[in-house]
Amino acid sequence: xxxxxxxxxxxxxxxxxxxxxxxxxxxxxxxxxxxxxxxxxxxxxxxxxxxxxxxxxxxxxxxxxxxxxxxxxxxxxxxxxxxxxxxxxxxxxxxxxxxxxxxxxxxxxxxxxxxxxxxxxxxxxxxxxxxxxxxxxxxxxxxxxxxxxxxxxxxxxxxxxxxxxxxxxxxxxxxxxxxxxxxxxxxxxxxxxxxxxxxxxxxxxxxxxxxxxxxxxxxxxxxxxxxxxxxxxxxxxxxxxxxxxxxxxxxxxxxxxxxxxxxxxxxxxxxxxxxxxxxxxxxxxxxxxxxxxxxxxxxxxxxxxxxxxxxxxxxxxxxxxxxxxxxxxxxxxxxxxxxxxxxxxxxxxxxxxxxxxxxxxxxxxxxxxxxxxxxxxxxxxxxxxxxxxxxxxxxxxxxxxxxxxxxxxxxxxxxxxxxxxxxxxxxxxxxxxxx
Length: 435
What we know:
By secondary structure, the chain is α/β, with parallel strands linked by helices. 29% of the residues lie in helices and 13% in strands. It contains eleven helices and twelve strands. Helix 4 (124-137) packs across helix 5 (158-177) and helix 10 (361-372) packs parallel to helix 11 (417-429).
């Protein structure tokens, strides 16, 4: 009990504001958040557990000039510019099914000279369309990314935080409208040890303003062991982060055990080599103790391998060992499956398609390996991540062309190829189709 109390932060200490001005700005960013007015389907119960589910990560961080925010082309632009020679995306979204009011013009041009458009993740119709695709293609839902770096109390971040709150609300509404599961995922990338109080204030606002995880009308929030599931990504990485395992443990215990703000199950996004305490993982044995607080462990696999070699069986062997550890400690294991990787436009020194998709073979082989290891669920990375070209949603084979323009395409395959593979992968993991 003494150990528990040391980490069960009080609400007063956690929510202490930096300054009155910062607190006002922080609170105003949440002003538009409200609980659902009524459930979409009164007969539906909240989804429970991860067994048999394929869940995607959903960034939802793309902004466009004219979308109602002041963030211009955030997450498309580079150095404040979104034009040939200045962008961060390697895939271009296929907007052929979008309505005109969902399309935002850019300085890029297609081969025929027509204007190239992009979408905004702040458009209600667009977010609903994405969750409709999840439903149509058999993806069970999404973990909605919430970057800690957006959740700051400084006044200059007000617009970013307000936009991220709108995104979360739109995802909640779209998940309910399309009978998909969703859960919040805090990403600690870029965070610092002395800022965890801000995350606690953020959690309080989400619970108070929109009833996140508490709203009885919200029939789509994902439950695990009868409690709402919240994910925390970035625990135990060895890349010189400015927070440590003690900070992570305190935040985990807040969400799990705090009498006022807890009551959640916890999923932890961890390094791929977490069990070995090697390579991308810190070497501290404490990591394995902190991970025993988790209800779900999901190791980040993106970039950790370039192919699935069934002859050597390394991926299957690795997951078998991970699964054995998790089962021993009563923890659900959720492997990450990704279609490929490229961030050439973000980092020009890196090659285009540094981890090739090979027509979907790389993606599918990971489903086969996951099933062979005994998994029945997976985290798909990612639904809409075109910055690093891990997206599985509809992308075009007709990206912009011209000087200073370099983009990948889907190798001539239909734009829904990876959505179809995702649904088929789910059926494979559940044992509904043969390998």
